[in-house]
Amino acid sequence: MKVLLEILRIIIIFLLGGGLLYALLNSFYSSLGTEKPYDVWFIWAAVLIFLFVLYRNKLQFTGWTSGYSRSKLSKKTTLISYVLCVLLCMEPVIARHF
Questions:
Q1: What is the DSSP letter of 62?
Q2: What does the DSSP 8-state code read for residue 58?
Q3: 33-88: per-residue pLDDT in tens?
Q4: What are phi and psi of 48, to 5 degrees?
Q5: 9: CB partners within 8 A, 6+ apart
Q6: DSSP state at residue 60
Q7: What's the pTM value of the predicted model, to 2 decimals?
Q8: DSSP H helical segments within the chain, as ranges?
């Protein structure tokens, strides 16, 4: 039962958190005038990477399950993921100027 609750928790975090982050970023980019259809994929990729790193480093330790394989991402992996997230967020603005 705890595993099902944890899966439901992950789904809710990704749907609600991802939806809110996407809405914020999309409204920001639309105010800048970058409304190309392929920009949506970059925004979603950045949001999913951010939520994955956030879950693996913080949120997995506050859930209902307590498994033996729970560990944080390495600092190098976290840094690379956040840099990739920032680059993906900057892509629509950079592509608008070129």
A1: G
A2: T
A3: 776 767 788 889 999 999 999 998 988 888 777 766 778 999 999 999 999 999 99
A4: -65, -40
A5: 63, 64
A6: G
A7: 0.83
A8: 2-12, 18-32, 39-57, 75-97
